[in-house]
Design brief:
The structure holds two protein chains of two kinds. Chain A is built from 23 helices and 22 strands. Chain A is an alpha+beta fold. In chain A, helix 7 packs antiparallel against helix 9 and helix 9 runs antiparallel to helix 20. The two termini of chain A are 29 Å apart. Chain B has one domain: Rossmann fold (3-Layer(aba) Sandwich), CATH 3.40.50.300. Helix content of chain B is 27%, strand content 28%. In chain B, the strands form two sheets. A six-stranded mixed beta sheet of chain B has the order 6-7-8-3-9-10, sandwiched between helices. In chain B, helix 4 packs across helix 5 and helix 5 runs parallel beside helix 6. The chains are: A alpha+beta, B alpha/beta. At the A-B interface, helix 14, helix 20 and helix 23 of A face helix 2 and helix 3 of B.
Chain lengths: 787, 247
């Protein structure tokens, strides 16, 4: 090994503290990128593979009842590859030991062979046996929540009859990655589950012999989905079809894709910010580090080495330092990426997991980090190398300081000399000081941005679940009931007040813009289920027309006064233009409201209800639950409390974990900045500080000069960081807008506080580390030599 | 532990400020041992100016560092006003330096971000009975350059600021390690004049390390070191004024 390479290795060893601190900064940037990108790739790939392997359908349609022979006509639609007809029903379940009503989505499966589409991944036990009407396969998350295993029993009210079913198998399905009860916002595996039952058993239970009420299709490659849906809707029209939907609109898939989209946004924006910050810091730190090597560079030149050679020597040094960080970043990133993917896979219940990170993230991370390091290094080396060797070998002439306006003020006269040193140092190197403060600010900013998610989510919960929903529970009915049902509910135990609601599936369109969603019919003066603008204003539905969420209005490209074409996908399928009378802002979903009387008018129906919102006495809820469990017309029971729990849980399991990783990296980043700043300042000013020690300053007092400067810069960085955090949070909440959510920009004081506190702790720790070195300053050595 | 300078002393003898007894110092760097001091006994008296002469490696700097509380001997003891400082804690040594010792370095070691006056104030702010920074700078002939930063001063001027900084606390001992080593002779003499004046006017015990034998002429006593031992102590019958020196 050449002597210089040996020197290089020894220098790296000598500077190991700093090498590690720089590596940490580099590693955080690279790791965040690798983690995010690889996790998203894996998630998408796994979802795709899951869909393919278990033959997830392309088109779904529900209807009232159609004869089985219609399947052949559906098959004949051009572009259709395979058809699977099924019976699907909602049923109230009674699970031993669980008071609250539970809703089951019953789905038929063939007793012999496997379904053509939407196949099940059997996790435990077996499929139902031919001829056994009481056997059921449960969805895994639901079974797990209730601790149900093959051999256990549960009861279901099917078509008014209470039946005991035996669990024979546990399975997963691509159709229910997200198992969401009709009308619910989030999956709640405790209160909603999927039950697969033999086709014959369901035909018998619901008097649907030789008939079906649900159909799924897969399409040939290149088939036009819209055309197929149009043809299918025509075919199903007379059988009570409620409008076919493409895979993209299928609830589970729509949620999954929305989530992946969200994570993708996070996985693009956050790492970019992070990598940029890390690159910036690496650049800054290395530039100072190399500047401190000035006399050595002079020495090399005196020996006759050329500038290019010297440059190459330091490039090697910096590349080695950065490489340590890159390798750590790769490792940690891949590890966390896998961990992250596993968490997702568990959350989404994928039966298998593909984690095969592509090279792109690794390469981008490495190139950006190396680039930033090299730019910083080359600038500094060039500066040192342009000096004549003799001058470079001498220590730099004392920098020229200036008295500032501050010295002349009363405050200036009052300052002691150590404080004056700190202030002059900062004003003498304004750019460097600003960079240090900026570094701190960015790491605080990233932390604020990461933690504000919790604030935003709490805010959504507060507004959506508490301010806008005053009722404790909502009950969905199997079919629209006459409005006397309201009085029946009023008479039930624990019920304090009832408010009816009607929700219908609707195609909204304006010109070429379309949205398939739902329209809620509201009583004229709502008391519980408020239409609540995010500004806090409660909106009453005017009798005349539609009240739309702004997101939906945006999608349709309409404003107040415009007409929207509304096609109701139920009953007689009425269709007509309705004027938009009001817009409002929501955080969740794309709601549309209309006066319930106008809706009934449209449907040409007598006053009817399909949902009732209940205000209850929660102390007596058990009685109510027991009563509801026995009501055959109840198809869904949604508890606000449970909804909030599942909302939080869902958020905690996906986004917040991801965000948690970010906070950790932000801490590493903050620590890296402070430690490096203090450590480099120490090597630049060791002599000055040792002199002070000789002059009789205590360790504490000399530390004050060095760490006071860092502390002051940190203090300057903190408010900047809070500002930057606010800005980043704004950026990311804006980018996160999906059809499902708008994340409000809410940053609580405690979030700023936590970020500031963490930055301060990181500062104290790195200060303590540097302080240890400061205590070991060699007082004698600095007296004789000039560095 | 505190160090008091008010201890009673015999009437007819000059008071001993600093006394070293059987000092040895061994530096260990890896497997190599360097014996820098091999048993040094020395007394420094109140008001006297001593010049320590010796070649490189003779141990004079090591001795100065130990006397100034910057280093601890491997064996032997140092007494300041009768108190053993070699047994002191780090913090007590810091107090000792802060209150009783002034240092002048070969390379001035001024704080570049502070003006001349502020460099002096740096020390007076923490000392027990300091003089005003202006007064100290006046004494070394820099009354006109109070608000200049080190970068705006010549080498000799910087060294005189360093001297002002060292004496402003009214130290009991002034230790100077090659104070003229980085200066040309004319400037060096200006610096020595400043030292001489301080020694005369405030009576600080002054020890000057040098390898320039000429400087020995301005001392009360010249102590020669070689190979870690004191080989000769000569008392000058008459101190030559610094302005008469030349090299």
């Amino acid at each position: 090994m050449r002597a210089l390479n040996r020197k290089l290795l020894r220098d790296l060893w000598r500077l190991r503290g700093q090498v590690l601190a720089i590596a940490m900064v580099v590693a955080s940037g690279v790791a965040v990128l690798v983690m995010s990108v690889s996790a998203i790739e894996a998630l998408e790939e796994t979802a795709q593979a899951y869909y393919e392997r278990y033959r997830f359908a392309d088109v779904f349609a529900g209807l009232k009842r159609a004869p089985q022979r219609l399947a052949h006509r559906i098959e004949a639609i051009p572009g259709v590859q395979a058809v699977e007809t099924r019976i699907t029903k909602l049923a109230m379940l009674d699970i031993p030991g669980f008071d609250e009503p539970v809703i089951g989505q019953l789905v038929s499966i063939p007793e012999r062979g496997t379904p053509v589409l939407n196949q099940l991944a059997l996790r435990e036990g077996r499929f139902v046996a031919p001829g056994r009407v009481d056997e059921v396969v449960l969805s895994e998350p639901f079974a797990e929540e209730h601790g149900l295993r093959p051999g256990d029993h549960l009861k279901a009210i099917m078509n008014g009859n209470k039946r005991t079913l035996e669990v024979v198998g546990i399975a997963l399905s691509p159709e229910f990655v997200y198992a969401i009860a009709p009308g619910a916002l989030m999956p709640d595996d405790l209160r909603f589950g999927v039950l697969w039952i033999g086709r014959e058993a369901l035909e018998a239970a619901y008097d649907l012999d030789g008939a079906f009420n649900d159909v799924s299709l897969s399409l040939l490659r290149g088939a036009q989905v819209e055309t197929v849906i149009e043809r299918l809707d025509q075919l199903l029209d007379r059988y009570g079809g409620i409008g076919a939907i493409a895979r993209a609109d299928q609830v589970s898939n729509w949620f999954l894709m929305n989530e992946i989209e969200q994570l993708k946004t996070a996985a693009t924006i956050l790492p970019v910010i992070f990598l940029a910050v890390a690159a910036f810091l690496t650049n800054m730190v290395l530039a100072r580090l190399i500047a401190a090597e000035r006399s050595e560079i002079g020495l090399f030149k005196a020996f006759g080495y050329g500038n290019a050679w010297i440059g190459w020597h330091y490039v090697k040094m910096v590349v080695a330092m950065t490489a340590v960080g890159i390798v750590i970043g790769w490792g940690v990133g891949a590890l966390f990426g896998r961990l992250n993917t596993e968490i997702y896979a568990e959350f989404y219940r994928f039966p298998f997991l593909y984690y095969r990170p592509g090279p792109a993230a690794f390469a981008i991370g490495a190139v950006v980090s190396l680039g930033a390091s090299l730019v910083g290094t080359i600038g500094a080396v060039r500066q040192a190398a342009t000096l004549p060797p003799a001058e470079a070998m001498r220590p730099p002439a004392p920098p020229v300081y200036e008295r500032t306006w501050l010295s002349a003020t009363w405050l200036g006269r009052w300052l002691d000399q150590p404080t004056r040193i700190i202030l002059r140092q900062i004003s003498r190197w304004p750019v460097r000081s600003a960079l240090t403060s900026t570094g701190i600010a960015l790491s605080v900013g990233v932390m604020v941005m990461a933690n504000q998610w919790t604030d935003s989510i709490n805010h959504i919960i507060q507004v959506y679940f508490y301010e806008a929903q005053r009722h404790h529970m909502a009950v969905g009915l199997v079919e629209a009931q006459s409005s006397t049902a309201v009085h029946e509910f009023e008479r039930m135990p624990a019920v304090l007040a009832v408010e009816p609601m009607r929700i219908v599936s609707v195609d909204f369109s304006k010109g070429t813009r379309k949205h398939r969603g739902s329209l809620a019919g509201m009583v004229p003066v709502t008391r519980f289920n408020l239409i609540y603008d995010v500004s806090g204003q409660v909106i009453q539905v005017p009798p005349g027309g539609l009240v739309l969420g702004t997101k939906l209005a945006e999608k349709l490209g309409v404003g107040v006064g415009d007409e929207v074409f509304v096609e109701i996908l139920e009953g007689r399928r009425p269709a007509r233009p309705v004027r938009v009378v009001r817009l409002f802002e929501t955080y969740i979903g794309m709601p549309a409201y209309i006066d319930i009387r106008v809706l009934e008018d449209l449907l040409r129906e007598r006053p009817s209800v399909e949902y009732v919102n209940l205000l209850i006495d929660e102390a007596a809820e058990k009685e109510l639950f027991a009563k509801l469990k026995d009501l055959p017309e109840v198809s869904a029971v949604m508890l606000r409390r449970a909804a909030v729990d599942t909302f939080r849980k869902t958020m905690a399991e996906t986004l917040l974990i991801y965000i948690g990783f970010f906070s950790a990296f932000a801490v590493a980043l903050g620590f890296g900045v402070v430690y490096n700043s203090a450590r480099i300042a120490l090597s630049e000013r060791g002599r000055e500080l040792a002199t002070l020690r000789v002059l009789g300053f205590s360790r504490m007092e000399t530390s004050y000069i060095l760490l006071g400067e860092v502390g002051l810069l940190v203090c300057a960085g903190l408010p900047l960081g809070c500002l930057a955090g606010g800005g980043l949070a704004w950026m990311i909440t804006t980018a996160f807008e999906t059809e499902l959510y708008r994340i409000p920009l809410v940053v609580e004081a405690s979030t700023y506080g936590t970020a500031v506190l963490v930055a301060l702790v990181a500062t104290v720790i790195s200060a303590a580390l540097v302080r240890r070195r400061l205590d070991r300053l060699d007082l004698i050595a600095v007296l004789k030599t000039r560095e | 532990m505190t160090f008091s300078s008010k201890a009673q002393d015999p009437v007819d003898r000059p008071r001993v400020t600093l006394r070293a007894e059987a000092l040895t110092k061994i530096y260990r760097t890896g497997e190599v041992e360097v014996q820098a001091l091999r048993g040094v006994d020395l007394e420094l008296f109140e008001r006297e100016l001593v010049v320590l002469l010796g070649a490189s490696g003779s141990g004079k700097s090591t001795l100065l560092n130990i006397l100034g509380g910057l280093d601890v001997p491997s064996s032997g003891r140092v007494f300041f006003d009768g108190t053993d400082i070699t047994a002191s804690e780090e913090s007590a040594l810091t107090r000792f330096r802060r209150d009783h010792v002034g240092f002048v370095f070969q390379f001035y070691n001024l704080i570049p971000s502070l003006t001349a006056r502020e460099n002096v104030a740096l020390v007076t702010e923490i000392a027990a009975h300091p003089m005003a920074p202006d007064e100290a700078l006046e004494m070394v002939g820099l009354g006109e350059r109070l608000d200049h930063f080190p970068a705006q001063l010549s080498g000799g001027e910087q060294q005189r600021v360093a001297i002002a900084r060292a004496i402003a606390k009214r130290p009991n001992i002034l230790l100077c390690d090659e104070p003229t080593g980085a200066l040309d002779s004319a400037t060096g003499i200006l610096v020595l004049e400043a030292l001489e004046q301080v020694n005369r006017e405030i009576g600080t015990t002054t020890a000057v390390i040098t390898h320039n034998t000429v400087i020995g002429d301005m001392a009360d006593r010249v102590v020669r070191l070689a190979d870690g031992r004191i080989v000769q102590i000569t008392a000058n019958p008459r101190r030559r004024p610094a302005c008469e020196l030349a090299w």
